Amino acid sequence: MSDSSHASLTPAGAPSFLDLGERLRQHGQLDAAATVTMNGLRQWPTLAAGHDLRGRIEADRGDDHAAAEAWGAALACEPGHLGALKGLAFLAFRGHDFAAAERHLEVAVARAPHDATLLGALDRVRSRRPAAPADEPIRLDDPTSGLLLGDADGMRLSGGVGPEASAEAADAAAAETAGLLREATRSARLLGLGGVKHLVVECADARLAVLPVAPGAALLAVRSGSTPVGRLLATAQRAAGVATQWLAGLQ
Amino acid sequence: MSLERWERLLGEVIVIPGVRGAALVAVDDGLVVAEAALDQLDGADVAALVAALVSRAARVARSIPTEPPRLIHLAGEGGTLLAIEASAPLWLVAVAEPGAEVGRLRVLLGDLAGAVG
Amino acid sequence: MRVLEPWVEAPLAEFLRESAARLALITTASGQVIAQHGFARSLDVMAAASLGAGILATTGELARMVDAAGGYRIVVHQGAQRGLWLAGFDTPRGRWIALVAFGEQSTVGLVRLFFHRFVERLVAAAPRTVPVREVLAEGFERELDASLRALFGGS
Questions:
Q1: Prior bond of B65 cis (ω within 30°)
Q2: Using an 8 Å Cβ cutoff, are B61 and A195 in contact?
Q3: Has residue C136 got a pLDDT over 50?
Q4: Mean pLDDT computed over A227-241
């Protein structure tokens, strides 16, 4: 795998094995790079950047399974690790699983919305897969997207309620959505319905979906009144998945 | 509209497999008007909680802003609640087990809502 | 919220939170104020306690006249924007009266649902050591005054 941007992902003060392993990898000395990296990881087993480097080495070797395992370990050490997300997107892209590639990149873009390489990669992935009407892009950082993420206190974290709505309306919607989710949670508990999976509210001119996003946060999806409910939920569930990883990255 | 007629409408709802019960509730005061087969649930509790949900959903709708809610579908890990506006302030409510035919229930409630008036 | 009996605090706080009620006043049938939430002045508490007890007594008498078995335990007044819930209920400490005012954030149904839970929790939390006092109409004012002084710190 070729990735000239790795240096920017290396944390300041990181162990020297990261630089050495990466230089060896770039010179094609993959076995030596792997040895250096594995030795380093024995000393620094929870260093996400180390697992990320191992993922790149394994991807260069053509062992996608080992690479995916390494990037999974990186995400376990550091949720939302950009290098790991890009790596997993790369593997999915190479395997022609464009939907999976897009999901990984969407999470990465949610964390780094101004990263031109990520945005370019996302465009490239989207251009390669057949358009599916239910698979609209997830843009949590875009206030016009009709996707809004709020925390348990009703504070807006990201997004908005549509192209014609103001930031004030989005803030108010975040506050009210938190109250609605609390009410839904209480009702579900008292009526024996268990934990809330989702709440759909239909109005004459709009359809809303509210999904819980751990811990205590809520995702609100707003679509037109003619949007099929199944499609609304599919979009909201994808957005909740992106939001979950985005929130994990904040912690 | 008589109580007997409302109970007949609710009877049509509870024959759908997986439906635990149905009720007609007044959301302005959170009280139950008619109920059917809510054996494991207190109809009064259902009414109070649905009224609170409708009120909260209306506040979200106002904040966006959109028209007021006319259907609420709460899906939980252990079942589903569907509530649809009938004739204000009355809402038709059904509580169903997991695996119930929610799509069919939704269509039926929509049809019956028009007959509540 | 102000409470005279500490064990009342948690059940009442939960009831207020869940029902979104605006005001609450809990008194004994003899007029002692046990807890209040939302009242700013002791005079208001005194008036509300007296009027609430009076309404319950009046409807009780009405129930007797129309032969309503068991009387009326709950009286609800529903206004355009505000509602009032007035209920007598039994506790291990004797008969108590609750007066609850609620606004547009709540409904009669919601107050009813969580009021029943409040009474259950209250009964479960009540210490059993103090004997039940007799309800004496002539002692009502004295009990009310004494408890208001304790709650508001007045003389």
A1: yes
A2: no
A3: no
A4: 91
Q: C-alpha distances in angstroms, A95 versus A65, A87, B15?
A: 11, 12, 49
ipTM of model over 0.85: yes
- Chain B to chain C, count of Cβ pairs less than 8 Å apart? 39
Mean pLDDT of A86-95: 88
Mutate one of A161, A181, A200 to test the B interface: name it (highest B CB count within 10 A).
A200
Q: By C-alpha distance, which of B75, B115, B67, B116 is closest to B98?
A: B75
CB-CB neighbors (< 8 A) of B104 in chain A: none
What are C57's two structure tokens? Answer: 């007594």
In chain A, DSSP finds a helix count (H) and a strand count (E) of 10, 5
Strand order in the sheet with A196-203: A156-159, A147-150, A217-224, A206-213, A196-203, B69-76, B79-85, B90-96, B19-26, B31-36
CA distance B23 to chain A (A): 13
What is the interface size between A and B, counted as CB pairs within 8 Å?
A: 124
Interhelix angle A116-128/A82-94, nearest 10 degrees: 20
Q: What's the pLDDT at B22?
A: 94
For A46-64, the pLDDT digits (tens) are 999 999 999 999 999 889 9
Tell me whether B65 touches chain A (CB under 8 Å). Answer: yes
The pLDDT > 90 percentage for chain B reads 68
Query: Given this model, what pLDDT does residue B75 score?
Result: 97
Question: How far separated are the first and last CA of chain C, in Å rounded?
Answer: 20
Q: Three-state SS string across A88-146, please?
A: HHHHHHHCCCHHHHHHHHHHHHHHCCCCHHHHHHHHHHHHHCCCCCCCCCCCCCCHHHC
Mean residue pLDDT across chain A: 86
At position A199, the amino acid (one-letter code) is L
Provide the b/e sequence for A48-80 (b: ≥16 CB within 10 Å).
bbbbbbbbbbbbbbeebebbbebbebbbebbbb
Q: B85: pLDDT confidence band, cut at 50, 70 and 90? A: very high
Tokens read off for A240? 């909740």
Mean pLDDT of B37-65: 92
Any CB–CB contact under 8 A between B28 and chain C? Answer: yes
Q: C110 and B28 in contact by Cβ < 8 A?
A: no
Q: Would you tell me the crossing angle of helices A17-26 and A30-43 to the nearest 10 degrees?
A: 160
- The 10s digit of each residue's pLDDT in A138-182 is 888 888 889 999 999 999 999 999 877 788 899 999 999 999 999
CA distance C75 to C86: 5
Question: SS3 for C116?
Answer: helix
Token look-up 């996003």 returns A213
Q: Which position has the higher pLDDT, A121 or C97?
A: C97
